Automatic annotation (TrEMBL), chain A:
It comes from the Eukaryota. This is Acyl carrier protein.
TrEMBL record, chain B:
It comes from the Eukaryota. This is Uncharacterized protein.
Length: 139, 67
């Protein structure tokens, strides 16, 4: 009697295990609205952990976002010269004031604040990418 | 790159940034403001005399307070 009950509960646990995998794997935002009732405390905890975990910006993503930003910058007329190595002044024809604006746009894009001294040292797409990658707060 | 002192250069860049932030809600549009501000600063790019650069920064500060 006791043994069958134990076996049954074990079987049930095994069967239900893969089912509760799904809410964990789903994005937090989607599950919070519609599936909040189904989420077990363990899954909820997992979701919170996922949220706080450092996403770690990939180099390609940072570069892509900076390039998009430059593409939309009206002072950049010759987008054919725009690549990962472009120099703001030599390749894109931006002056130092434009560079200040680009750096401001980068600050907003990645929600960080770049100190004046470091902002002054950013003259190319590569330098900007390297700087963002070195910032743990950038996202 | 100008050979003038980096401290003055940073001051100019800072006031430029501050004015840009202020221009966000300029009535005639941010792009209008940005182009004008850029022209105003670029027209003074040949200044090498530190005293005159300081005067220019003072003028920018005056614009900032008035705006």
């Amino acid at each position: 009697m006791f043994r069958t009950a134990l076996l049954r509960s074990a079987r049930q646990a095994i069967r239900s295990a893969p089912r509760c995998q799904t809410p964990i794997a789903r994005p937090v935002v989607r599950s919070s609205l519609f599936q909040s009732k189904h989420i077990t405390p363990a899954a909820y905890f997992q979701a919170v952990r996922c949220y706080s975990a450092h996403a770690g910006l990939a180099k390609e993503e940072v570069e892509g976002r900076i390039m998009d930003l430059l593409k939309n910058f009206d002072k950049v007329t010759d987008t054919s010269k725009l690549n990962g190595q472009s120099h703001f002044h030599n390749d894109l024809g931006l002056d130092s004031l434009d560079t200040v604006e680009v750096v401001m746009a980068i600050e907003e894009e990645f929600s960080i604040e770049i100190p004046d001294k470091e902002a002054d040292a950013i003259h190319s797409v590569k330098q900007a990418v390297d700087y963002i990658l070195a910032q743990p707060d950038a996202h | 790159m100008s050979p003038t002192s980096p401290a003055l250069r940073h001051q100019v860049i800072r006031i430029y940034k501050e004015l840009l932030y202020l221009g966000r809600d300029y009535p005639q549009g941010y792009d209008f403001f940005r182009a004008r501000l850029h022209k105003a600063f670029a027209s003074q790019k040949d200044l090498t005399d530190e005293e005159r650069i300081r005067k220019g920064i003072e003028r920018a500060e005056f614009v900032k307070k008035g705006g």
